[in-house]
Amino acid sequence: MRFTTTCKRFLLRANSILLLCGMLALTVAASTPAFSLDLPTFPGAKLSSQISLSDPESIASSAIGRAIRGAEELKLLTYKTPSGLSPEAVLQFYEKSLQESGVVAKDAKAIVRWVQGQELGVMAYPTKSPEGVFLLTFDSRSEESTRSGEIVIVLVTGRIDLGSQTERMPSIKTKSVQADGVQKVRLETPRGPVWIRSVEGMPIRVRILGTSAGRADEYSIDSVIRGGEAVLVAKIPAQTPATPVELVAPPNLDVEVSAKEGAVLVQGPFKTAAVRTGDGIVVVRNVDRGASIVTGNGLVEVRDVSGALKIETGSGTIRGSGLTADSVQSTVKTGQGNLSLEFTRIQGGTLDASTSNGNILIQLPRNASVVLKASAVNGRINLSNPFRITSQTNGEVEAVMGDGQAQMRLHTSNGNITVEVK
């Protein structure tokens, strides 16, 4: 396979690839263990998160699949490291360990190897067993208060033609603020992709992962703290390629992001999440007290979210799983696309879910207590036991389950409605 110029540019931006790998892992619905290979761990480093998956079809249709043609499996790991480490020492450790274990050939040449003083290090190598590519970034300033750092590793496997590397590595912009007394974090950026993730014991940090050659001075990150709210504004010049932006914050904060365009991914635990983007996929995971999401166009996926949902996309599928709703008012709406929501608990409150053109699937626990009103103008309505139908006319059904504590209203103009009880 041959890389296009765009694919090569993605590969060279190693930090961008790492972010895209994380985004891919979040957006694939079914994740399975992909590797039996144990990668080396730098002495003193502690694993903080890991994701592995094997789904070639989903990978091929995703951002990472378009960036690295032939990608079949991936494994992503992040580590917190002690203070005082040099990027060169970290890179040398992994180069030696990977060669000794046979993952990387002893005569292999780096696709990317870049060190920025005592602060940042990036490298990428082709691997032979398994065949693919190994990418690593090290940030020695990841946590400024304790001077500890962070290693992020991605192993992507498949029959990949890595091409040649002649461009200079882009720089990275970083801004950190202390989290003491902060209850809410808001990130503003002209465009994404944006990855927001929760890490225990760290300050609030924003990174712009890669700048256009010759225009690095036009990128910046401003910050201000007002009361209990920290506001960080990423400035990215116009007419430049899409630039990934990463926000890391301690858990159990309220997080909010506003982007004019681009995908947004939020990986908690966080207290609440609010996302607004003009155009792009939105994924939110592990939020305790509700999520608000607005995108002009794109898939929306929420997982392991408790509390009220306010979701709206002009065009795109909406998927929800691991949802808990206790006495809250939720509204879920797509102009065009399917809608599926799986609740592990629903007690009291209301849910209004609608699509102009698409199917609706609702999955409820057996102990749910619901009054249902469903309307399908051009389609069927399917209810499973123990729903009891109380009223039925052309295209409209009213039914009750249990004591009817929660109110649920479902509507599609063109499509079927199915409510399952598990």
- How would you describe the shape? elongated
Strand order of the largest sheet: 11-12-8-14-16-18-20-22-24-30-26-29-28
State the end-to-end distance.
46 Å
Share of helix, binned = 10-25%
The total count of helices amounts to 5
For the biggest sheet, the summary is: 13 strands, mixed
SS class: mainly beta
Strand share of the residues?
over 45%
Strand segment tally: 31
Quick overview of this protein structure:
The chain is mostly beta strands and 422 residues long. Among the domains are: 5-157, no CATH class; 170-285, no CATH class.
List the topology elements.
Layout: H1 5-12, H2 14-27, E1 46-54, H3 56-60, H4 63-67, E2 73-81, H5 87-100, E3 112-116, E4 120-128, E5 131-143, E6 148-157, E7 172-177, E8 184-189, E9 194-198, E10 204-209, E11 220-226, E12 229-235, E13 245-249, E14 254-259, E15 264-270, E16 272-277, E17 282-287, E18 291-295, E19 300-305, E20 309-313, E21 318-326, E22 329-334, E23 339-347, E24 350-357, E25 360-364, E26 370-378, E27 381-383, E28 388-393, E29 396-401, E30 406-414, E31 417-421
Parallel strand pairs: 8-12, 8-14, 9-13, 9-15, 14-16, 15-17, 16-18, 17-19, 18-20, 19-21, 20-22, 21-23, 22-24, 23-25, 24-30, 25-31, 26-30, 27-31
Antiparallel strand pairs: 1-2, 2-6, 3-4, 4-5, 5-6, 7-10, 10-13, 11-12, 26-29, 28-29
Name the features.
422 residues, mainly beta, elongated, 11% helix, single chain, twelve-stranded mixed β-sheet, 31 strands, 13-stranded mixed β-sheet
Structure notes:
- There is one protein chain.
- With 422 residues, this protein is mainly beta.
- Among the domains are: 5-157, no CATH class; 170-285, no CATH class.
- 11% of the residues lie in helices and 50% in strands.
- It is built from five helices and 31 strands.
- The strands form three sheets. The chain has a 13-stranded mixed beta sheet with strand order 11-12-8-14-16-18-20-22-24-30-26-29-28, with no helix packed on it. The protein has a twelve-stranded mixed beta sheet with strand order 7-10-13-9-15-17-19-21-23-25-31-27, with helices on one face. Strands 1-2-6-5-4-3 form a six-stranded antiparallel beta sheet, with helices on both faces.
- A hairpin with a 3-residue loop joins strand 3 (112-116) and strand 4.
- It is elongated.
- It starts with a helix and ends with a strand.
